């Protein structure tokens, strides 16, 4: 049996190790574990704290068998788009999809997913949005009007869990949803040794504090001495892009509907810092993560058209012997490509640009360009 995980590992910590260990404990030592992982940009609209190759190696050393990279346009999508792309990729390789949730009740998660896919839901959602609610609040209220507990969508892991179930249903995926309980707080800013949050570990890293006690030993060895990347380190580069964009470029951005692109354009030409811009654009209706993703898309040159394009391939970042066997059994249609493999597709040119721009987020001295061409798959025997 092969089990998939959609992940970011930003960074890989003890909670992630628990998930991998629980899969092997439940399904056996010979279970293949395949991770579809965000690359150098993550869903919250920030650069990943460690380079994707380093994070992929940590995952393999901690028990995963194969790590493939979710394209940047997937990683910077909404929760719905992130989950849908992850399911589409892993359905090619896996029998089940394991994910953490605050409410690890499969029937409740599936019931919520079915309601969100029903014909009645869009009308109820639109009615709540017209009242001025934010999208998350409107979605929750619409569910409650259908007689379902909308509170299930108040928790971040539950939201993604429901989106995974929606994607599995919508795509008629062969994968079985396999929820497990997610303990601890997803957004906790103080690190907990038992159930650390990735947020708390990134804060510690940015403050120069040790995080080794919150990591599996193997992951700690991989991350030791690796350069960290933060949005703050690349702030001037992002501001330079925002301040020189034309009106039409703002209009072409993803997530800019209902005039949000105009608001971002106006504040980009008034405010001094990225925090000031995001704070001025944020409102009751528009979440901070949506605005942060929009800003990062502007910096990377990602348009609505780029975001909506079909995923032509994904990159293989790392594997062990079992992972190599899993790949060899996959359909031979050119969908899985090695890291750094030149490809006659416009996406390859964008990949190189995005990697070069990622190096500008490196704390201290910026990294060198050209990383995309020099990447190699990590193979751990």
Describe this protein's structure.
The protein is an alpha/beta fold. Helices cover 47% and strands 12% of the residues. The protein has 19 helices and ten strands. The protein has helices at residues 14-27, 52-61, 72-75, 79-90, 106-116, 120-130, 135-145, 156-170, 198-206, 217-223, 235-244, 247-251, 260-268, 274-281, 288-300, 304-308, 321-328, 346-358, 371-374, and strands at residues 2-7, 32-38, 41-42, 46-47, 66-70, 96-101, 176-181, 314-319, 336-338, 378-379. Strands 1, 2, 5, 6, 7, 8, 9 and 10 form an eight-stranded mixed sheet that branches. A two-stranded antiparallel sheet has the order 3-4. Helix 17 (321-328) links the parallel strand 8 (314-319) and strand 9 (336-338). Helix 5 packs across helix 8 (156-170). The radius of gyration is 20 Å and the shape is globular. The two termini are 21 Å apart.
Strands, helices and their partners?
Elements: E1 2-7, H1 14-27, E2 32-38, E3 41-42, E4 46-47, H2 52-61, E5 66-70, H3 72-75, H4 79-90, E6 96-101, H5 106-116, H6 120-130, H7 135-145, H8 156-170, E7 176-181, H9 198-206, H10 217-223, H11 235-244, H12 247-251, H13 260-268, H14 274-281, H15 288-300, H16 304-308, E8 314-319, H17 321-328, E9 336-338, H18 346-358, H19 371-374, E10 378-379
Parallel strand pairs: 1-2, 1-6, 2-5, 6-7, 8-9, 8-10
Antiparallel strand pairs: 3-4, 5-8
Helix pairs in contact: 2-10, 4-8, 5-8, 6-7, 11-15, 13-14
């Amino acid at each position: 049996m092969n089990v998939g995980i959609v992940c970011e590992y930003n960074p890989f910590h003890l909670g992630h190790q628990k998930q991998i260990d629980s899969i092997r404990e439940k399904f056996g030592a010979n279970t293949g574990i395949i991770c579809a992982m965000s690359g150098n940009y993550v869903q919250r609209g920030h650069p990943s704290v460690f380079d994707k190759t380093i994070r992929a190696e940590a995952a393999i050393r901690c028990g995963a068998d194969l790590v493939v990279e979710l394209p940047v346009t997937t990683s910077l999508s909404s929760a719905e788009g992130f989950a849908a792309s992850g399911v589409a990729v892993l359905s090619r390789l896996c029998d089940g999809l394991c994910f953490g949730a605050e409410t690890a009740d499969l029937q409740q998660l599936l019931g919520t997913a079915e309601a969100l896919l029903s014909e009645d839901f869009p009308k109820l959602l639109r009615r709540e949005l017209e009242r001025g609610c934010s999208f998350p609040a409107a979605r929750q209220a619409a569910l409650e009007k259908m007689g379902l507990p909308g509170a299930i969508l108040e928790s971040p892991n539950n939201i993604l869990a429901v989106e995974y179930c929606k994607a599995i249903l919508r795509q008629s995926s062969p994968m079985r949803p396999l929820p497990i309980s997610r303990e601890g707080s997803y957004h906790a800013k103080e690190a907990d040794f038992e159930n650390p949050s990735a947020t708390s570990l990134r804060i510690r890293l940015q403050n120069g504090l040790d995080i080794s006690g919150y990591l599996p030993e193997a992951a700690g060895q991989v991350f030791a001495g690796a350069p960290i990347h933060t949005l703050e380190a690349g702030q001037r580069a992002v501001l330079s892009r925002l301040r020189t964009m034309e009106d039409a470029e703002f209009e072409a951005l993803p997530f800019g509907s209902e005039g949000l692109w105009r608001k971002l354009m106006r504040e980009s030409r008034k405010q001094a810092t990225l925090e000031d811009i995001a704070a001025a654009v944020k409102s009751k209706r528009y979440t901070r993560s949506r605005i942060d993703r929009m800003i990062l898309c502007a910096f990377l040159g990602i348009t609505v058209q780029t975001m909506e394009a079909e995923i032509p391939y994904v990159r293989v970042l790392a594997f062990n012997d079992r992972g190599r066997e899993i790949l060899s059994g996959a359909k031979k249609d050119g969908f899985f490509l090695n890291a750094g493999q030149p490809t006659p597709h416009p996406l390859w040119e964008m990949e190189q640009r995005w990697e070069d721009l990622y190096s500008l987020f490196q704390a201290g001295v910026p990294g060198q360009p050209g990383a995309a061409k020099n990447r190699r798959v990590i193979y751990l025997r």
